[in-house]
């Protein structure tokens, strides 16, 4: 294959993979019975999404020299697992909106949402087993998937623990998002490398790439919560502030706050475990004044540099260049 490094080529490949994943998800959950169980899941996936995790799985298989299509099924399992976490996160956070639509527990009820999430795990495992059981690294694939599931649950537990802590330091926050967000991306890349029969060194490079990509992705999410347009973000602007989430922005603002006004606002945020919607603009202004948004973007850039440096040990082909391109997509996203 002739190596092409144009963004339009990568975008076309991304869109082709995205379409394949959408078709696979549609075939899995549409018209499946009982309707009370599977209709909410079909509704969830009809809401769309970036499908970054399954695409990362496919591109990673290509990066180690195999056919990305061979990783489509495992990638789909990763997307189902990711959406399982969203369904249960929305219940715990009492979030009414996801991707611009009502969340499952809001449209139906909590019992339906919990059960839908539960069966998604079963479906994801079934896909992993049926699609990769004959591959030489099947045991490693299943182990990676299982470890990733455990670690994302651990990350969610850490996030919940933060609600009861008076303060959270930055190292604790980074550890939490490594588990809750970055591990799923790391696992997606690792499984792609394993499906592609990559070497140990190549698979470790893919994991490092995706881990730092995931950290950058979550910090970018924190920024977008206060800076995006609501119609683009698909949820309420400032939702993290209202819910009392201790994000990168809050922790950095706490580190930098010197004036009485800023400290009082942050104390109110911590004491009340969140602020009313009318205080969102005040928080945004404070973070502008403290340079918190710039600090957060600098950290995103730093993490993405770590991602790109990890790719140096991989063979230079179309898909390793596409992985590097994915870092620019994360950095430039608006939702």
What does this structure look like?
The protein is an all-alpha fold and 335 residues long. Helix content is 75%, strand content 1%. The protein has one domain (7-141, 152-332): Farnesyl Diphosphate Synthase, CATH 1.10.600.10. It has a two-stranded antiparallel ribbon with strand order 1-2. α1 (7-29) packs across α4. The two termini are 33 Å apart.
Secondary-structure topology with pairs:
Layout: H1 7-29, H2 35-46, H3 52-63, H4 72-93, E1 97-98, E2 101-102, H5 104-107, H6 110-132, H7 138-162, H8 170-195, H9 200-227, H10 230-233, H11 239-243, H12 248-256, H13 260-272, H14 280-290, H15 292-310, H16 318-332
Antiparallel strand pairs: 1-2
Helix pairs in contact: 1-2, 1-4, 2-6, 3-4, 3-8, 3-16, 4-6, 4-7, 4-8, 6-7, 7-8, 8-9, 9-15, 12-15, 15-16
């Amino acid at each position: 294959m002739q190596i092409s490094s144009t963004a339009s080529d990568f975008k076309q490949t991304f869109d082709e993979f995205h379409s394949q994943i959408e078709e696979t998800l549609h075939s899995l959950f549409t018209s499946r019975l009982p309707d009370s169980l599977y209709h909410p899941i079909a509704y969830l996936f009809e809401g769309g999404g970036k499908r970054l995790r399954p695409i990362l799985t496919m591109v990673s298989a290509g990066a180690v020299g195999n056919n990305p299509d061979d990783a489509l099924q495992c990638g789909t399992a990763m997307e189902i697992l990711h959406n399982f976490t969203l369904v249960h996160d929305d219940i715990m956070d009492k979030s009414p909106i996801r991707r611009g639509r009502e969340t499952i527990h809001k449209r139906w009820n909590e019992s339906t949402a919990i059960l839908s999430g539960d069966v998604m795990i079963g479906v994801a495992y079934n896909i992993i087993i049926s699609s990769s059981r004959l591959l030489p690294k099947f045991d490693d694939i299943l182990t990676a998937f299982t470890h990733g599931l455990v670690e994302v649950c651990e990350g969610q537990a850490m996030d919940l623990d933060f609600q009861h802590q008076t303060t959270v330091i930055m190292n604790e926050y980074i550890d939490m998002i490594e588990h809750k967000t970055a591990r799923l991306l790391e696992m997606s890349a690792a499984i792609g490398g394993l499906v592609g029969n990559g070497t140990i060194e190549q698979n470790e490079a893919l994991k490092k790439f995706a881990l730092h990509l995931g950290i950058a992705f979550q910090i970018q999410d924190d920024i977008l919560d206060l800076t995006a347009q609501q119609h683009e973000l698909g949820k309420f602007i400032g939702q993290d502030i209202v819910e009392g989430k201790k994000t990168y922005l809050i922790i950095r603002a706490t580190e930098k706050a010197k004036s009485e006004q800023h400290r009082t606002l942050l104390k109110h945020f911590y004491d009340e475990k969140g602020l009313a919607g009318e205080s969102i603009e005040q928080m945004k202004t404070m973070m502008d004044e403290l340079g918190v948004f710039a600090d957060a973007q600098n950290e995103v850039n730093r993490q993405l540099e770590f991602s790109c440096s990890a790719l140096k040990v991989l063979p230079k082909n179309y898909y390793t260049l596409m992985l590097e391109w994915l870092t620019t997509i994360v950095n430039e996203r608006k939702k």
